[in-house]
């Protein structure tokens, strides 16, 4: 069936909505992120149980994208009451059907309880993690079946496209996007409307739009969630952009590590083609558009726009100097617009609700909402959407639920390897493009990795340099060699061989790499080093001057000892030590041979907590026997 | 390691499908690798000929992208996530345990061609950190001592 006109789209939507019963029982299961936690088994259990009881007509099972609260995976929501069950197993399914779906009772055990207060929240709308968010871009994620275009259309899907094609000129669309204040969500924050105008005004008949789905920052999974959970919103954004710029062909570049995203996008494209929402004379207008998918082949630098273009052309993904900008000469030397996945998904909202509505959210210079992925040392890992300008602290504590185990927050890493660290003292700053840049980090694509006092900042800086050094394409010698030199220096410091002048050298070299490199990779890779030497200088000093790793992370600077007064000679660590470095015997105090110890930590993790005889220290010598000695007789227990 | 003979018929099928098209080298390599499990050196000239490229250009692309391999691969691929979230949650000790248990270095293949051991830069499943993916299965919130039990399930 083809939808030929805006009116047909409207009546199609009305007929879908009329067929849907909002009071019908529906179990929404996250089948993307939660898949890793056994969501497939849970779905199968639901389907089987429902079939076995002949309830297929009464209960719908809907496979959705990410609900957001990944820490509690696998999660489900039961409509129409919006009941939220978490950390399920397939064994819970018969009980859910009997108690909740049939009798309407809530199963206390499966309800989310706030770890701090113990308060229970049976409904999504009350859970603090969700309550404090503004889900605009993620409005459909976790709600619709992303493989069913009807679900998207029922929720005003493709209404923005229809509005744009029938009531707006291309110039009006670009004006609207420009007035909305939308800035690129890939990290750099360039005004989207202005970019579109460049391409519209560029000379040439053939032009392209490219959607950048090469989400490569470690710790970022927003774009994955949008492509998997609401792929049509990306397609609709691209359609509107293409119409506004006079483009007939679009590409989506998706990284190969995201197989579900590729699958869902392919399904979405096929369904949109079938309904005539992609193809020729879309909705009866003169506008033709097709979308092709290109899968990446594993190269971080391909997130950079000129490298991405080279990769689509089938070449090595190496950046080139700009100008000419892709808007003048991009894919196959034609004017090309590149927007990130999340930017595209914002576009239908702006067209449908207007630029004034959009610009009412956010800060003076950064409008709208931003999706962040929370990970690392935080209770509520998951996907979070908040107005730009929300303080970091609100995201980490009110939504993220704070740091596990009562540990203290040390820093929040934003923007991946191109970003930097936001230390505790800056947590009340608003998250926006300009503020984060002012303190040496970047908002980036939206990854937020929380680090606590057990994280060594020198080690993390080294980790990022290892990443960027590995991913440097090698074209600019300052990036290729500078990152190597910085990595070598940081490695030396973590191995206890740092020199006093190292920090100064790191900063100087970092600034040069930043100034001289051609592309975003080189121009940002020093950020983790520059922010960590600035905010965590004491940790560098401890490594260099005292040969001590305060967080007990750097292997070369830590030692394991067995305390003679606590060891019961139980043989557990001795038997399990992979390098046979533990001496002793039954009821003999065990001793670690420091020359053999590989610092794997097995002994520490296996020593029974009632003994807690193994300690990990840095920069200090613990007095222990040189040879195994008999365990002291047990003290008689007090009566 | 044993190198299996190249099935020229299969190679021809892939090449015919793409012949004459522009910018398809990466897609061709992805399909070739899907067919043979790796990109055999012997096929590079054929690919170059069909796409009107120099063999050096094909070779350059193969070696640029992490996804392509020039040597035969094991039956199961273990990807240890080394993303930021996994790193701060102890991915290094998980990787070390795998190296010890399998007796291979990062990027290596076991002699019995049972496992490839790779470290990757972020699987985008940070809520599972530290995470390891074996073929299409995820194993999350791992400790080194879980490894032995997990790899038993693969042949």
- Mean pLDDT over all positions of chain A: 95
CATH fold-level assignment of the largest domain in chain A: Rossmann fold
Largest sheet entry of chain B: 4 strands, mixed
Residue share in helix of chain B: 40-55%
Q: Write the CATH homologous superfamily of the largest domain in chain A.
A: NADH-ubiquinone oxidoreductase 51kDa subunit
Uncertain regions of chain A: pLDDT < 50 for 5+ in a row? Answer: none
Rg of chain A, Å, rounded: 28 Å
Which CATH top level class of the largest domain in chain B fits?
Answer: Alpha Beta
Describe this structure in words.
The complex is a heterodimer of chains A (639) and B (155). Chain A contains 24 helices and 19 strands. Chain A has 639 residues and is α/β, with parallel strands linked by helices. The longest helix of chain A has 18 residues. The model of chain A has no long low-confidence stretch (mean pLDDT 95). Chain B has 155 residues and is of the alpha+beta class. Chain B folds into two domains: 57 residues, Orthogonal Bundle (Arc Repressor Mutant, subunit A), CATH 1.10.10; 76 residues, Glutaredoxin (3-Layer(aba) Sandwich). Helix content of chain B is 41%, strand content 12%. Chain B is built from seven helices and four strands, in the order H-H-H-H-E-H-H-E-E-E-H. In chain B, strands 2-1-3-4 form a four-stranded mixed sheet, covered by helices on one side. In chain B, helix 1 packs antiparallel against helix 2 and helix 3 packs across helix 4. The longest helix of chain B is centred in the N-terminal third of the chain and has 12 residues. Chain B is elongated, with a radius of gyration of 18 Å. Classes of the chains: A alpha/beta (639), B alpha+beta (155). Chains A and B meet through strand 11, strand 15 and helix 17 of A and helix 2, helix 4, helix 5 and helix 6 of B.
């Amino acid at each position: 069936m083809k939808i030929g006109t805006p009116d047909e789209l409207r009546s199609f939507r009305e007929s879908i909505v009329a067929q849907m019963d909002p009071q019908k029982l529906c179990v929404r299961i996250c089948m993307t992120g939660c898949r890793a936690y056994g969501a497939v088994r849970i779905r199968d259990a639901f389907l089987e149980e429902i079939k076995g009881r002949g309830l297929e007509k009464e209960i719908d099972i809907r496979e959705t994208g990410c609900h957001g609260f990944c820490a509690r995976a696998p999660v489900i929501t039961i409509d129409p009451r919006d009941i939220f069950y978490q950390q399920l197993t397939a064994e819970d399914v018969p009980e859910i059907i009997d108690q909740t779906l049939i009798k309407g009772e809530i199963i206390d055990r499966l309800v989310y309880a706030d770890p701090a207060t113990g308060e229970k929240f049976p409904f999504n709308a009350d859970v603090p993690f969700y309550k404090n968010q503004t889900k605009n871009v993620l409005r459909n994620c976790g709600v619709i079946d992303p493989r069913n275009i009807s679900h998207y259309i029922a929720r005003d899907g493709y209404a923005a496209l229809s509005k744009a094609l029938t009531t707006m000129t291309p110039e009006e669309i670009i004006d609207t996007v420009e007035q909305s204040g939308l800035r690129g969500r890939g990290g750099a924050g360039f005004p989207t409307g202005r970019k579109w105008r460049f391409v519209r005004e560029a000379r040439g008949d053939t032009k392209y739009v490219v959607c950048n789905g090469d989400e490569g920052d470690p710790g970022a999974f927003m774009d994955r969630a949008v492509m998997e959970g609401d792929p049509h919103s990306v397609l609709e954004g691209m359609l509107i952009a293409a119409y506004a710029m006079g483009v007939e062909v679009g590409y989506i570049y998706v990284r190969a590590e995201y197989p579900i995203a590729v699958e869902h996008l392919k399904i979405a494209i096929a369904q949109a083609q079938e309904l005539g929402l992609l193809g020729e004379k879309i909705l009866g207008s003169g506008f033709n558009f097709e979308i092709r998918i290109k899968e990446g082949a594993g190269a971080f630098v391909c997130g950079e726009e000129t490298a991405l273009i080279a990769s689509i052309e089938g070449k090595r993904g190496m950046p080139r100097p700009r100008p000419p900008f892709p808007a003048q000469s991009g894919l196959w030397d034609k004017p090309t617009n590149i927007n990130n996945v999340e930017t595209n998904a914002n576009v239908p909202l702006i067209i449908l609700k207007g630029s004034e509505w959009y610009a009412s959210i956010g800060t003076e210079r950064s409008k709208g909402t931003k999706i962040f992925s929370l990970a690392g040392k935080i209770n509520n890992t998951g996907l979070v959407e908040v107005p730009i300008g929300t303080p970091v602290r609100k995201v980490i504590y009110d939504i993220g639920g704070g740091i596990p185990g009562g540990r203290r927050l040390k820093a929040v890493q934003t923007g991946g390897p191109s970003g930097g660290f936001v230390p505790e003292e800056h947590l009340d700053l608003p998250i926006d493009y300009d503020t984060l840049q002012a303190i040496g980090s970047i908002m980036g694509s939206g990854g937020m990795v929380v680090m606590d006092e057990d994280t060594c900042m020198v080690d993390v800086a080294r980790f990022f340099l290892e990443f960027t050094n590995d991913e440097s394409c090698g074209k600019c010698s300052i990036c290729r060699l500078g990152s190597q030199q910085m990595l070598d220096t940081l490695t030396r410091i973590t191995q206890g061989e740092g020199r006093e002048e190292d920090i100064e050298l790191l900063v100087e070299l970092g600034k040069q790499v930043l100034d001289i490199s051609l592309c975003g990779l080189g121009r940002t890779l020093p950020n983790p080093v520059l922010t960590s030497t600035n905010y965590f200088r004491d940790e560098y000093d401890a490594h260099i001057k005292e040969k001590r790793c305060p967080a007990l992370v750097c292997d070369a600077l830590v030692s394991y000892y067995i305390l003679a007064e606590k060891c019961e000679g139980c043989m557990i660590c001795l038997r399990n030590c992979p390098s046979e470095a533990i001496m002793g015997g039954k009821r003999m105090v065990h001793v670690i041979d420091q020359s053999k110890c590989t610092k794997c930590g097995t002994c520490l993790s296996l020593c029974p907590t009632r003994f807690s005889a193994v300690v990990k220290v840095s920069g200090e010598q613990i007095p222990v026997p040189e040879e195994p000695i008999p365990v002291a007789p047990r003290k008689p227990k007090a009566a | 390691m044993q190198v299996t003979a190249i099935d020229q018929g299969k190679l021809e099928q892939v090449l015919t499908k793409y012949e004459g098209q522009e910018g398809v080298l990466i897609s061709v390599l992805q399909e070739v690798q899907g067919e043979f499990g790796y990109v055999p050196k012997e096929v590079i000239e054929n690919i170059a000929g069909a796409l009107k490229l120099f063999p050096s250009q094909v070779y350059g692309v193969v070696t640029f992208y992490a996804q392509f391999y020039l040597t035969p691969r094991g039956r199961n691929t273990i990807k240890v996530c080394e993303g930021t979230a996994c790193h701060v949650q102890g991915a290094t000790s998980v990787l070390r345990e795998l190296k010890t248990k399998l007796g291979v270095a990062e990027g290596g293949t076991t002699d019995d061609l049972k496992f490839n051991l790779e470290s990757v830069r972020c699987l985008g499943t940070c809520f599972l950190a530290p995470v390891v993916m074996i073929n299409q299965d995820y194993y999350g919130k791992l400790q080194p001592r879980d490894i032995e039990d997990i790899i038993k399930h693969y042949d």
